[in-house]
Amino acid sequence: MSSLTEDTLNPDLHQLALSLKAQARTLGFDACAITLPDASSEREYLKAWLEKGYQGDMSYLENHFDKRIDPSQLVAGTVRIIMLRMNYLPEDTRISEVLRDKRKAYIARYTLGRDYHKMVRSRLKQLGQWLSEQVEETVSFRPFVDSAPVLERPLARQAGLGWIGKHTLLINREAGSWFFLGSLFTNVALPVDAAEEDEYCGRCTACMDVCPTNAFPQPYVLDARRCISYLTIEQSSSIPVELRPLMGNRVFGCDDCQLICPWNRFAQRSPEDDFKPRHGLDNGELVELFKWSEKEFLTKTEGSAIRRTGYEGWMRNLAVALGNGPASPGAIEALRSKMGAVSDLVDEHIRWALDELAGKDELLTEPLFIHAGSKRLPE
Ligand code: B12
Ligand code: SF4
Predict the structure, then answer these.
(1) Which atom of ligand 1 lies nearest, measured to the CA of 151?
(2) Nearest-CA neighbor of 123 among 143, 150, 152, 146?
């Protein structure tokens, strides 16, 4: 693929970049900025992170090191990466209410609706097609959302979309951090935007302090093996026993480090129907969800990213949350009824949960609004 520069292209590239950004907004993106395919500044951080084994079972993060650092090796001929961000927080998310009610299941707010990979990717593709139509020469573009070895956060920072917080997420001064990132690789040499050189966390360490499982060995570094998001979604084996009581009622992902972040006072809600909760998953009862058969799980999570954990992972996670909840007859009965029904892995978590509940006094644990983890979150 040959690179399209000012000399070879018909339209004025500055004007084209402005129109591209306007088009991105029309397509529902909240910001769009352009950067070079170069993440060499991350080389040492990434190397050290992998050497410590913080990626856990996510061995795909160990592959294609050179392509992560030099994205032009991923798609030959790439001269620019267009970085996009899209807010995802739906209206009325009942976050505190659900997180504090130990009978309820807390599902991370990014995954209550349609799988964002499909939705964001399709919008990126539309933006790429629009770009092609503006230029007479052959334009190449490739959209990516999570799906490839792309260091999305460092590239987004480099494009000026925000800074990387101590919790390692990208934060934007006008929008907080409740957004997805996506990228469009292209051979069009659009003008590059200025990087975000500053960071605005100051001395605040709220995200690190609130983390229920102490997943941050130091600022800007996450030990994924301790992160509830990893434990409930990415790891398919047994959840370490010492971490289970710390997980509270978080059954798929975790939002605590974002919830506590003061910059999320500026977060904007998404108008997208695709991100609205489906099947009441924003407020589900643990006992009811645990009663689902595999068929019900597959039906109710169709088109959702929750499917990633599979029925076995889903039941494992719910068993842990039930063990962390009140010792109600309903919870005990539900746990017993699934013994032997799914797999040895789930049985092991059920036994753990029943042991936990056996040690609790129902009357003492029944009050509704006990914080699901050990640390305080904002109202
Ligand atoms: C693997 C992965 C995970 C893993 C590991 C997370 C991690 N921190 O690496 C797990 C499963 C734990 C995870 C969890 C979540 N994830 Co995730 N995840 C990814 C994925 C696919 C790859 C990230 C990656 O490459 N990690 C490897 C590390 C080494 O890279 P890195 O974090 O980018 O770190 C670099 C910089 O931080 C840099 N660095 C910069 N400055 C400094 C300063 C110092 C001093 C140091 C030491 C380092 C440093 O060092 C690193 C190496 O380059 C990306 C998509 C993508 N392709 O990028 C989504 C992504 C990062 N995840 C996302 C989301 C939404 C989440 C969750 C909020 C989901 C949830 N609610 O449960 C949580 C948040 C947990 C957290 N605090 O990070 C979004 C983040 C959007 C945003 N605003 O930043 C992304 C971008 C997906 C998307 N397309 O929108 N995720
Ligand atoms: S998502 Fe939850 S468990 Fe993971 S780092 Fe953030 S607060 Fe900790």
Answers:
(1) 58
(2) 143
